[in-house]
Amino acid sequence: MTTDLSPGAPPGDEWDGVASAGTANAALYLELDGWEGPLDLLLDLARRQKVDLRRISILDLVDQYLTYIERAEALRLELAADYLVMAAWLAYLKSALLLPREEQEDPSPEELALRLQLRLQRLGAMREAAARLIARDRLGRDVFARGAPEGLRVDRRNRWQCEWFDLVRAYGDVKVRAEPVVHMVRERMVMTLDSALSRVSAMLGVALDWMELREFLPPPREGEWADPRLRRSALASSFVAALELARTGQAQLAQDEIFGPLRLKAVRG
Amino acid sequence: MSAPEPQRPDELVRAVEATLFAAGQPMTAEAISTHLGGADVGEALAELQRHYARRGVHLVERGKRWHFETAPDLAHLLRREREEVKRLSRAATEVLAIVAYHEPVSRAEIEAIRGVQTAKGTLDVLMEAGWVRIVGRREVPGRPVIYATTPDFLTHFGLASLRELPGIDELRAAGLLDPVDDAQIELALGKPDDTGVTTAAWDEDSAEAELPIGLASPGQSG
Amino acid sequence: MSAPEPQRPDELVRAVEATLFAAGQPMTAEAISTHLGGADVGEALAELQRHYARRGVHLVERGKRWHFETAPDLAHLLRREREEVKRLSRAATEVLAIVAYHEPVSRAEIEAIRGVQTAKGTLDVLMEAGWVRIVGRREVPGRPVIYATTPDFLTHFGLASLRELPGIDELRAAGLLDPVDDAQIELALGKPDDTGVTTAAWDEDSAEAELPIGLASPGQSG
């Protein structure tokens, strides 16, 4: 029953020794590499009953499977765990099917057997379907598409659209964006750095001792210089002028404490 | 030479004929129509199909896409030079059939039918061939990806649609294509305890614990 | 359809038809014959050529080699142009406006006016649209190419000449220069007086003269 289980399929490398061992039963031919798992082996065994899968004898099938596994073990073949697990499960199923049942288990052994049968049917159906599918007239094997199609090309051409208003509006936006770059605040009176520099420099030339920075500013009585905003500008410009004179070695700067009066004195060469 | 002067076909028919001859890929009627400036090509396709039905080249529709191919009865003349078609392993063939007959289907569902783990490479081979693709995820815990066939699958195997799969009606009628995650068909598998007696225990929650799927691949059975 | 039932061609004709259809290259009559087991294919080729003469695909012989090709009168179907109407991007519109108002103008000048770099693609789009062209090179170091508008530009925008584009004053009157508060954007170009006081003053003319290429830096205004 278990002889010649996989006709035609050459044994894998690891089975060479077994196949050529010339064991007790020369016809015994075990080739687990050929099976895609225990379900596959079961299906093949079921097919050997040569009956419709719906009418197979599960008990016979279990016997065949267990015999197969026993023979493999007798030959000291190392079986994958799943084959052994299936064997154990089938052994249980067999005993459950044979023994008189006192209490009804759920699911019953008959139901388990039915499920196994259904699974084999499903796998069998797919195996057959695969064979029929693969045997169809296949494009590139049995039927052929045009060998040298010219190919279709679609060149996309853009037609650009723009309205007159969008164009003019865009120019307006560019102008608006560009102008602020050169803007100054209107009618803001300032003392420029240049004028502060010449004023401080001139006054320093005639001063004899340290002078406080504020003394260099134009006197507030002189008309527009009374404007506090202009005075702030003059102070800032004079401070920068003082720093510039110190940097160029024309003046010394001194401050005794933070926020204290800033004093200035000419450096005499 | 004795044949009567062939009728000149309609200009639209000629245009559809030329377009499909020149196309490198199968085309849907919509794509042909778009290419031809929006003409209704349904009649033209039907006429072409009828014209070519008895010739050495046929016009066929596969999954809503049309292409010309050589007549199947001439396969024996043409087959010899060409061995471009990939040979699929048995596992890949089986997985392809399961995807086609059950789509969309997850890997776990494929494995439930085959009773073994499916090597990652098997699905990759089918996807690389352009016959199978991922079409989404099943909204169940773990959100497994699900697979289905492509239009190229139909084209390659000469199927107008999946309804033409061999024997699909019989299989469906026999209930062999019912969803595979149906808990009622799952087998329970217990572990052998230390007395050596195996106890079957149905685990409602665990489809994994079910039949000996994926305990070891056949190759490991050294 | 109304056409009579097409005759089934001779088997050899069908075989030759399929062979040539599937061939990757034009084939000589001898090669076809060899492929088909030595049959004399001359008649079959002649009949096929006659059959296809009025169809969308022709069987042609070139230098003793036979192949199918799209009918010459349908060759235009192989390469179609599809026009897509696209709106000019904002950047492209600005560049186009600058070219129109300042032509001829170099890319560097356009960038100086816009205050941002102009992607090369933007000018390419305008040239593709047929509104801008290269009109020469500026005789300055680097000899940059300079751009100007085309007659198509005038046609598209319905202008008799560029002088019809609204001037700055008209733009202002139309509120197109309004977005920012006037006081914030006015220029001060006063001179320091002898007391060292600078008075900022709005210069009405400066808006005209403002071609902001090489914008005056604020430091120069002191």
Automatic annotation (TrEMBL), chain A:
It comes from the Bacteria. The lineage of its organism: Bacteria, Pseudomonadati, Pseudomonadota, Alphaproteobacteria, Sphingomonadales. This is Segregation and condensation protein A. InterPro entries: ScpA (IPR003768).
UniProtKB/TrEMBL annotation, chains B, C:
Gene3D superfamilies: Winged helix-like DNA-binding domain superfamily/Winged helix DNA-binding domain. It holds the Pfam family SMC_ScpB. The keyword Cell cycle applies. Keywords: Cell cycle, Cell division, Chromosome partition, Cytoplasm. The keyword Cytoplasm applies. This is SMC-Scp complex subunit ScpB.
